Amino acid sequence: MKTHALVRSLMTAGLVLVSGAASAAAFSDGFEGDLNGWSTAGDVSNQGGYILTTASLTEVDDDPLPAGVFNFSGITAVEVGVADGLESRIGLAPGALDTADGFAYEGSAMWRELTVSAGDTLRFDWLFATSEPYVDPLPDYAFLLVGDQVIRIADESDAPFPPTTPLRRESNLFTFEYVFTQSGAVRLGFGIVDVGDYTATSALAIDNLSITPVPEPSGWALLLGGLGVIVTSARRRI
After folding, report:
1. What is the pLDDT of residues 113-151, one digit of tens each?
2. CA distance linking residue 71 with residue 166, whole number of Å
3. Would the pTM count as exceeding 0.70?
4. How many Cα atoms within 13 Å fall on the side-chain side of residue 146?
5. For labelling alongside 116, which of 25, 38, 47, 200 has CA 20 to 30 A away?
6. CB of 70 within 8 A of CB of 129?
7. Using one digit for the tens of pLDDT, what is the confidence trace for 4-21?
8. How far apart are CA 46 and CA 229, in angstroms?
């Protein structure tokens, strides 16, 4: 099993969450430990970037390959739509991960609680890879969790490219951005689910996660004051 090729392709750099004094939302994570304060369910691992998959340990997801071939944590993906399933673990109602395209069957997630201010900006890099076939694929997808909002990051249709990994196809590397609209405590998470059946592993890699705090009024004043000095100096030189 060539897991290292998948990890290198999905993500190679460390995860850094940027801190700042202007907002209680800012926090830092040096990516030195395993999952650095994140809670997890299913197959979630830190391998120079966080990797979440839909891979089981005991079921043959990617026939003819053996069971667990794309599972990196040694923990099987979690059932969806059952008691103590993935939805309940991340604070969602039953059925919240189902879509118009089908029922979610199993998946994995990671999450943590933090405090944000309205206007704070979340950014992260992502890559989606899947073993779904090119013809008649099922719509596995990855999502961002903000409170009880499930925001789609990507699905199998975003992965048209030949693989540099053991999976069948993958996306390019993209950056996702989300601006928080409310201040206060919030659950921030990431997840991925199999839709329509249990077969064909899909994987989400995330990296370079940062929360940039919105400048406080005093910060804006300093910024505008500095711009004024620059403009005045430029005029004097003309």
Report:
1. 999 999 999 999 999 999 999 999 999 999 999 999 999
2. 12
3. yes
4. 18
5. 47
6. no
7. 444 454 543 222 333 333
8. 46
| β pairing state of 141-146 and 50-53 | unpaired
Examine residue 160 and say whether the peptide bond preceding it is cis (omega within 30 degrees of 0): no
Rounded CA separation 99/121 (Å): 27
What are the structure tokens assigned to 55, written together?
A: 């891979």
Q: What angle do CA 159, 76, 157 make, to 5 degrees?
A: 15
User: The tokens 């197959």 sit on which residue?
Assistant: 43
Tokens of 235: 């005029």
d(CA 15, CA 69): 25
What would the 3-class secondary structure string for the chain be? CCHHHHHHHHCCCCCCECCCCCCCCCCCECCCCCCCCCEEECEEEECCCEEEECCCCCCCCCCCCCCCCCCCCCCCCEECCCCCCHHHHCCCCCCCCCECCECEEEEEEEEEEEEECCCCEEEEEEEEEECCCCCCCCCCEEEEEECCEEEEEEEHHHCCECCCCCCCEECCCEEEEEECCCCEEEEEEEEEEEECCCCCCEEEEEEEEEEECCCCHHHHHHHHHHHHHHHHHHHHHC
User: Do 102 and 195 touch, CB atoms closer than 8 A?
Assistant: yes
